[in-house]
């Protein structure tokens, strides 16, 4: 076994077929209570007896599947302190004011434009202006890593537009350096943007939500906040902090502020095809693309919008493989290292070029870089 995973040309066969599609199909067939309910009935109609093993086994399977979905449903109901008979009221998109940090590119930009089409008042906080023609989008220049700027801009937003009802903490930056190559400025920028900015926006906008006893807070973490990776020490640590920030915030809202109506959603996506990680090098062999597909921004945006509409606190883990990430630390070390090697994560950043969030002293991106040329072609 070599130290680095092998790479090969991508196969078009696997471009639209991946484990997520398979799981989705199975969830509506072999693992669906509605579908499995008819299996024992089918055998009974064929003349089998109730005591026949095929009927008993299929019946037990149906009961097991039903219990699984029941406990999943009840867990969600309990977490959101919902009603057994009635769901949340209709979500009025036209009455929402959604604040999106880092909304001028990538996921944030697509989310802002998509919500604007739904007649939502969208407020984008970013150091760079968003390129859009949607009149429902208001841009405020703000470095969300600085409390003074967030405090001043938040007061301006509340005065000019109104109290935000949804906060999407999406801003992020990645350095892509080995720990000894990170400068103090690199580390500070990573944690200021990826972690501390969440605290500043919460301090600015959460009081209004608590007063209204309504709102929804989205925390954009990453699967890299659940598992570690070489050349990502600062990024992984900053995203890991958000996982417990979201959990602690949930308990504070429920127990101390007595505002369970304010929803919290944690998002832990895998690799997303945005400029932020456009110069990473992932394995391209078919099995990897099948098991660990890269996400298109539209997939993440659709999940966020669906979560807004459902009005439930939840954790969005995508694609499917990310749901196993929390269990990685408890695996035997040889299995943990095997999966790490298969993912190619420890070598994905070797040719990384920082495209987004460059500081003035870092200068412009080298447009002659082969990796940068590739990024421009892809995005």
UniProtKB/TrEMBL annotation:
It comes from the Eukaryota. CDD domains: 17beta-HSDXI-like_SDR_c (cd05339). It is a multi-pass membrane protein. Keywords: Lipid metabolism, Membrane, NADP, Oxidoreductase, Transmembrane, Transmembrane helix. It is found in: Membrane. Pfam families: adh_short. The chain crosses the membrane at residues 25-46, 53-71. InterPro entries: NAD(P)-bd_dom_sf, Sc_DH/Rdtase_CS, SDR_fam. Residues 358-379 are annotated as: Disordered. GO terms for molecular function: all-trans-retinol dehydrogenase (NADP+) activity. One of its GO terms (cellular component) is membrane. SUPFAM superfamilies: NAD(P)-binding Rossmann-fold domains. Belongs to the short-chain dehydrogenases/reductases (SDR) family. Catalyzes the reduction of all-trans-retinal to all-trans-retinol in the presence of NADPH. This is Short-chain dehydrogenase/reductase 3. It comes from Pleurotus ostreatus. The lineage of its organism: Eukaryota, Fungi, Dikarya, Basidiomycota, Agaricomycotina.
